[in-house]
Amino acid sequence: MHITFHGAARNVTGSKHLVQLNDGTTVLLDCGMFQGMGDQTDELNEHFGFNPKKVGHMILSHAHIDHCGLIPRLVAEGFEGPIYCTSATMDLVRILLLDSAKIQMQDVAYSNKHRARKGLPLLEALYDEEQVMDAMRLFKIVEYHEEFEITSRIKFQFTDAGHILGSAAVHLSILENGKYTNITFSGDVGRYGDLLLKSPQTFPQADYILLESTYGDSLHKQLEPIADALLEIIKQTCLVKNGKVIIPAFSVGRTQELLYALNSLELKGILPDVPYYVDSPLSEKATEVLMNHPEVYNKAVNDVLKVDANPFAFKGLRFIESTEESIALNSDPRPCVIISSSGMAEAGRVKHHIKNNIGNQKNTILMVGYCEPNSLGGRLLYGDHEVHIFGEVYEVKAEVRSIKSMSAHGDYEDLLHFLNCQDPAKVKQLFLVHGEYEVQQHFSKTLNENGFMHVEIPYQHQRIELN
C-alpha cells in the first residue's frame, strides 16, 4: 500500500492525497483547487498528476474550495466513483462549486477582454455549472461516527474537525495481508473554543496520520478578541477618516464569524451606525445553510439563540445580490463596511472593491484569514506598495490591517490538542500537509518534542510506501 501527495504538499492549497492498495484499489482524499500560487496556479489546476479514470473512490473532508474545488474537473476527466462527505458538507459543496464555476466564467470573460486587446491567447475556465451538476450526482452522505464500508477491505468513519460547518477528519481502516492499517487524514483542524462551532473530536488510534499544519508555528490566543478589533478598525476608518472598510472573507465560515461578532457589538449597543454590506450571494446562501444545521453550534451560540433568533443579522446589514448593486457600492462615497469573497482576494467581487478603493488613504483593507504569499491578499499583508489587479498596476494607498486571530485553522497548541488522543509510540509515520515548508519544518521539531518521532514533510507528487 502507498500514498501519493498530489496537493497541499509543502504549500497550503490544492489538497489531494491518493491512497492505493496492493490490488490497485484507490481512494482519493479531497480534490482541492490550488489558489494564490502565482504563475504556477493554472498549470497546477490543469494537471492532477494521476489519471482520474483510475480512481475508484473519493472521500471529502470539507467544502472549502482548496479541498473540493477541482471535483467537477475530476469528473469531467473520467472519475465515476462515489464521493463521500457529511450532509452539511454536501449542502455547502453544491453552492460553493456552482459559485466557483460562475466566478471563473466571469473572471475569464473579464480577463479575456484585456487579453484580446493585447493579442494574447484567451483563457478558459476549469469547468462550468453544467459540469458541477454532473459531479453532484456522485455525492453520497456519511454522517459523523457512522462506520461505512467502501469495499470488503476498506471502511472509514468521520469525526467532527471543528473547522467549518460539516468539516470532518477521515479515519480509514484498510485490510491487507491479514491485518488492518488505520490511516487518519485530519482535513483542516479547527480551534478549541471557536467562536461558533464545537471543538474537534477525539478519534481512534492511527498507524499513519496526515495532519494539516497551516499555523504550525503560530499561537492565536495571544491576540485580541475579534469583536474588539473590528470595533476599533470600523471606528477609525468609518467615523474618524470617513472611509470604507473592505474585508475579503471566505463565504463559508469567516463571513459568518464576522457577522456573529458584529451582531455581538449590536447586542451590547456599541455597533457603529454605518451601512454593512455582504457582497457575495454565496455568503447569504452559506449563512442559510449554517442556520439549517444548528447541531454544529457550540454552547455560547446556543445561549445567544435564547435571546436572538438570528445571531448573524443586525441593524444596517444588507446582502447584495446583483452585479449592478455591487458596482454601485464603488461609486457610493459614504463610509461603510463591505464583506466580500474571496478570502485571499484572488477572485470574485472583492477583487473589484479592492481595485476601486486601494488608491484612497481613507480606506482600510482588512485581512481576516490565511493568504498564500503570492495571492493578492498575501502581497497586501506582506506590505507591497504596488500590486497587480486584473493585469493592471495599482499603488497601495489604503491602510492594510489584519485580525490574525480570525482563523478557522487551529494553531500549534490546537493541533497538539487534536493529537492528545493518540499514543505517539504507535504512530508509524505522521505526514505534515497543508502548510508552508518553513512552518512545517518548525512544527516537525515541536512534534518530535511531543513524542512523534517519525514526521515526514512530503513534496508534490511524492509517493511513500506504507509498511
UniProtKB/TrEMBL annotation:
Gene3D superfamilies: 3.40.50.10890, Ribonuclease Z/Hydroxyacylglutathione hydrolase-like
Keyword Ribosomal protein assigned: no
Coiled-coil regions, chain positions: none
Molecular-function annotations in GO: hydrolase activity; RNA endonuclease activity
Keywords recorded for this protein, A-Z: Hydrolase
Keyword Hydrolase tagged: yes
InterPro entries to which the protein is assigned, alphabetical: Beta_Casp, MBL, Metallo-B-lactamas, RibonucZ/Hydroxyglut_hydro, RMMBL
Residue ranges of domain Metallo-beta-lactamase in the record: 13-234
Pfam families: Beta-Casp, Lactamase_B, RMMBL
Domain Beta-Casp per the UniProt entry, residue ranges: 255-380
Highest taxon listed in the record's lineage: Bacteria
Name of this protein: Metallo-beta-lactamase family protein
Species annotation: Mucilaginibacter mallensis
Lineage: Bacteria, Pseudomonadati, Bacteroidota, Sphingobacteriia, Sphingobacteriales
